[in-house]
């Protein structure tokens, strides 16, 4: 009996579409709030703190620093049974916001909090989505 499960994939909404469309072009595009003079992530309709309707989309480098991580040696769900260990991470972008992601192309023993990381664009054409992962800067 086959017990494989299709992995859940993100669903694009009108609010998040510019982020997903940017990833499809291998660009990191997030919101910027002139009223708070800061970048914003996750995508939303109004700026945090100021609640201003001034959010604009801007491309960022995608470069960042590893803020924290965990090595998930047991699958987080049946959809991920073939994906362990999973290197779950939070990356702090150079522009400020933090992003929940996975680390790739690195051994768990080589991961160091504070290390520089760069974007890896993982295309899933069957699902029409590109996911943003991170790897250490060589």
Automatic annotation (TrEMBL):
Transmembrane segments: none
Domain of life: Bacteria
Domain ChsH2 C-terminal OB-fold: 57-121
PANTHER family (UniProt xref): BLR3430 PROTEIN
Protein name: ChsH2 C-terminal OB-fold domain-containing protein
